[in-house]
């Protein structure tokens, strides 16, 4: 990584995060919810992989890297001393330089102490990228958060309170999830996010207010540029976030908006139909298969209707009229008995 200037860590923010750390859920309490702190946050912030071989801490730490110190204690000062001694031995210089990065940035401890449990991995430089270093950094800072939060709750004084681990991750987390701080006006890179270091210079009361007022972002979304990196896609897949192309994402947003508009129109039409039914002066109930309506038209009325039909037929005679009346009367009465008519409720109109 090309880091051109020192990072400014907000001590007030760090201890506010420690005070809001929830040990069980591994997240920070923000108002009425827990906002998670996950390995993906580490991957986005530092560009480290969270997939690959797990780092196993072995009891026997005898290795080539440790032999470089010739029995001296592994401290930050001694690492600098050995770097000056091995300038011309490239392999040893690289091992010591990575160890210094472990001691001062990825796994920092208080004072001059060095976290030495991964010394043996430095013997095989070619296999370093096969390990899930992001998980190791995440677990280290989480362990320190749990320990520090307990000390804070127990009322330990400031001299006894300390926070190990990569504090830069926590400041970037606050920027990503709570929009705390400002990024540089001009930025050359967007990944890892450490290269766009957020500057947070706020008083404690303003930091507290930000936790109560600022918009909460539960899940950080990868940018278009970040999705070009295999580390990011692997991290999202590992956490169950399937890779979604940016174009497909915008298409889904447009389709979702269209569905919402159509639902709004349908809801309006249904509401208008209900209002129309309530306001109508006529009843629309239909009588279904009411046997009492069989006699609504009597047989005499059927005969009268049949006679009228016969009278209006130009080719009728007395015999035909009588025959037609008998057929019409029989047919109409029979049909009414077998299949009663369905009638709507009559409404009397006062004119």
Automatic annotation (TrEMBL):
This protein's UniProt keywords: Membrane, Transmembrane, Transmembrane helix
Protein's GO biological process: meristem maintenance
Domain Aminotransferase-like plant mobile: 8-207
Residue spans crossing the bilayer: 90-107
Pfam families xrefs: PMD
Disordered: annotated span: 329-351
Biased composition (Basic residues): 335-351
Name listed for the protein in its UniProt record: Aminotransferase-like plant mobile domain-containing protein
Lineage, highest ranks first: Eukaryota, Viridiplantae, Streptophyta, Embryophyta, Tracheophyta
């Amino acid at each position: 990584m090309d880091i051109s200037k020192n990072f400014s860590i907000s001590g007030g923010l760090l201890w506010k995060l420690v005070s809001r750390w929830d040990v069980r859920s591994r997240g920070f309490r923000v108002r009425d919810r827990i906002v998670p702190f996950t390995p993906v946050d580490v991957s986005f912030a530092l560009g480290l992989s969270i997939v690959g071989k797990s780092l196993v801490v072995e009891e026997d730490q005898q290795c080539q890297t440790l032999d470089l110190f010739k029995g001296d204690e592994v401290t930050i000062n001694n690492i600098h001393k050995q770097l000056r001694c091995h300038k011309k031995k490239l392999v040893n210089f690289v091992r010591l330089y990575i160890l210094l990065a472990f001691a001062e940035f990825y796994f920092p401890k208080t004072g001059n102490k060095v976290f030495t449990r991964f010394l043996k991995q430095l013997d095989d430089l070619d296999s370093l990228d096969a390990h899930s270093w992001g998980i190791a950094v995440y677990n280290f800072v989480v362990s320190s958060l749990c320990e520090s939060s307990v000390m804070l709750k127990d009322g330990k004084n400031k001299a006894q309170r300390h926070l190990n681990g990569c504090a830069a991750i926590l400041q970037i987390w606050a920027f990503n999830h709570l929009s705390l701080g400002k990024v540089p006006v001009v930025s050359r890179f967007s990944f890892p996010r450490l290269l766009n270091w957020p500057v947070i210079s706020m008083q404690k009361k303003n930091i507290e207010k930000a936790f109560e007022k600022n918009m909460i972002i539960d899940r950080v979304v990868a940018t278009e540029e970040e999705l070009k990196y295999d580390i990011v896609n692997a991290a999202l897949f590992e956490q169950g976030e399937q890779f979604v192309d940016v174009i497909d994402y915008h298409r889904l947003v447009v389709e979702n908006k269209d569905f919402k508009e159509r639902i709004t129109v349908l809801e309006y039409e249904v509401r208008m139909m209900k209002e129309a039914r309530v306001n109508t002066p006529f009843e629309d109930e239909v009588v279904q298969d009411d046997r009492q309506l069989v006699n609504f038209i009597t047989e005499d009325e059927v005969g009268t209707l049949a006679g009228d039909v016969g009278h209006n037929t130009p080719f009728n005679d007395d015999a035909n009229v009588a025959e037609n009346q008998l057929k019409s009367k029989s047919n109409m009465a029979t049909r009414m008995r077998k299949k009663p008519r369905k009638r709507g409720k009559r409404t009397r109109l006062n004119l």
